[in-house]
Amino acid sequence: MPHSNNHFGSQTVNETERIFHALDSFRIEIPSWGFANTGTRFGKFIQAAAATNLEEKFADAGQVHALTGGSPTVALHVLWDTPNGIKDVAEIRSLETKFGVRAGSINPNLFQDQEYKFGSLANPSVEIRAQAIAHCVESVEIAKALGSRDISMWIADGANYPGSQSIRRRIDWLQEGLKATHNALGPDQRMLVEYKPFEPGFYFTDIADWGMALEYARGAGPQAKVLVDTGHHYQAQNVEQIVVWLLRLKALGGFHFNDRKYADDDLTLGSIDPYQVFRIFYEIISEAGDQFNDIAFMIDQSHNLKGKVEAMVQTVVAAQELYAKAALVDRAKLAELQDACRLVEAEELFRGAFYIDVRPTVMQWREARGLPPEPLKALYASGYVEKATQARGAKNAGRVTSYA
Asked: Most-buried pick from 35, 276, 292, 364 (CB within 10 A)?
């Protein structure tokens, strides 16, 4: 008789305990830029409630954490959030205390300055490469002052036309820059190397896949790991297989979670393919072992049409529910079925956990932790977005110049 756990909203005591344990240990970082007015290369649609400064970003992040209990840190972008560099640390410390969330990963900006038209760390100009390295080292120092562990390195460098750049020399230049950044790290810090197959470079990007990211990380030093962005893959690529390989190699540093239909669409987590997120979470729960605490779960999304705070609450809630589902897979039974090559039964057991309605139990967990059982409803009832609209509407009118 095939094994089935296809039940809905009726968890056993054991399953409830597993969900509670899973959610108690699950944290996912939210990005400051997810609260600001952003857009596509075609234009930007202004939202009256969007955050216009760092304090408003922290206020929004604090609201999301207060509602969900799952996002105690906020990722910062150096150019957008710390324009004065290390001098902004005191303000950030004050905002942490005021809004109940801490600064998380620090993200250098190696793509916006005009000097980076032909690359940053891989630019043919030695002067521009030096400028990029100095910015990365400054980012490390900001992170040290804030007590932030991770420096998230997304390198937008690449080329659009065959023959227009030397792929070989750019490998050397980029490796040199990453090594210099790694050498500036404190003993408890890490450098996370992100990859992306295309955009903004359409002939090649300098770090196009996880193998390149892994080699760059290895060349930089022992405190460098790979950062996986779920939107940064070719269509139909098996992301969870990449995750298992990186775990096996002890090289998985973290994730930027989002969803996509076509490319790097920056859609809210689970809105297109929640089953993929479930599969990724399962592999982490199953395979990470003592590496679990070294994996940084982070959201990287820009909500151009959805309300900023609403979309972020929705995203954190979706992540919690999908993680809870992954925690319900009977790993011992699944291994038994896999080893016996009982394919249908193994698949049914696996996807059965995905189809379990965990929402009632997640609501119980929230109530037990003093959180609102339905975060989105609580957000709407609070009037927070309406108040933000009134306070920020005039400032947001006509804001079209900056990304975040």
From this structure: 35
